[in-house]
Design goal:
With about 270 residues, this protein is of the alpha/beta class. The protein is built from 11 helices and 9 strands. It folds into 2 domains: about 200 residues, 2-enoyl-CoA Hydratase, Chain A, domain 1 (Alpha-Beta Complex), CATH 3.90.226; about 45 residues.
Length: about 270
């Protein structure tokens, strides 16, 4: 059993039920903003998930009807205005490393989003594998509204791949709010849910994934990420090698045996 199974997080709520972990950003009085410390703990947690074979999927959400208000104005923004370049670069590289760690961990991450989801919070949603939102939610990549570029935590690379270049440009140049119905229509949300059900539906999806062929899910996640930089021919060859590896797993044999015996396969992730 890895160290995260009974982990006590300091800057967010962490819980594990069965094979699914849940991270809940939990500063509801300020709509769950991030701080220097919570960025670092999120980075370290997602990096550690690579070594947690008993955790098969992750739900990322916020408490009390909001997802995340981004970087705290007085705990992050104000100190940044007083830093010199080396310290600023150290900070921006650290925040980017959170999304890197999210993409590198093999577990699918489902973001359950209600209320405010802005700035770095929107980037955490973007870095997740699936996004469940609510009609009332408000997503904004609002960096331009504080005098910054839209290229934060990978947004200029990842957001166009999720919703298309023109739509991403609209959001990143304007910093405007994208409401729930638009987020679903544009493909940012995989599903719209009622506010009272968004976390439970995210958990249900996480359990479904956790009960599936989780080694293969990890390969799917890796290839979805790595193939962004490949030509079609390179991608086809890389997928051939990856799929051949999956064909050596016990889960592949379990699936065949289950089909042959007209029953549902019981996957174990090996």
């Amino acid at each position: 059993m890895g160290r995260l199974m009974n982990h006590r997080a300091e800057h967010f709520r962490w819980q594990v039920e069965g094979k699914v972990a849940q991270i809940t950003l939990d500063r509801p009085d300020k709509k769950n903003p991030l701080t220097f410390e919570s960025y670092a703990e999120l980075r370290d947690t997602f990096e550690s998930l690579r070594f947690e074979p008993d955790i098969k999927a992750v739900v990322l959400t916020g408490s009390d009807g909001n997802f995340c208000a981004g970087g705290d104005v007085f705990e992050i923004i104000e100190p940044l205005t007083k830093m010199d370049m080396p310290d600023l670069l150290q900070f921006t590289q650290m925040t980017g490393s959170v999304v890197k760690a999210m993409r590198a961990c093999p577990q699918p991450i489902i973001a359950a989003i209600d209320g405010i989801c802005v700035g770095a919070g929107a980037c955490l949603a973007m870095g997740s594998d699936l996004r469940y939102g609510t009609p009332e939610s408000k997503v904004a990549f609002l960096f331009v509204r504080v005098g910054l570029a839209g290229c934060d935590m990978g947004a200029c690379a990842m957001l166009p791949r999720i919703i298309g270049h023109g739509r991403a440009a609209d959001l990143l140049y304007s910093g405007r709010v994208m409401k729930g119905d638009e987020a679903e229509r544009w493909g940012f949300y995989n599903r719209l849910c009622e506010a009272a059900a968004v976390v439970s539906e995210g958990q249900a999806m996480a359990r479904t994934l956790a009960d599936g062929p989780t080694f293969a899910h990890g390969i799917t996640k890796r290839m979805l990420h790595e193939e962004w930089d490949m030509s079609i021919n390179e991608a086809i060859e890389a997928e051939a090698r990856a799929q051949a590896v999956c064909m050596t797993t016990k889960d592949f044999k379990r699936a065949f045996d289950a089909f042959a015996n007209k029953r549902e396969p019981q996957f174990e992730g090996d």
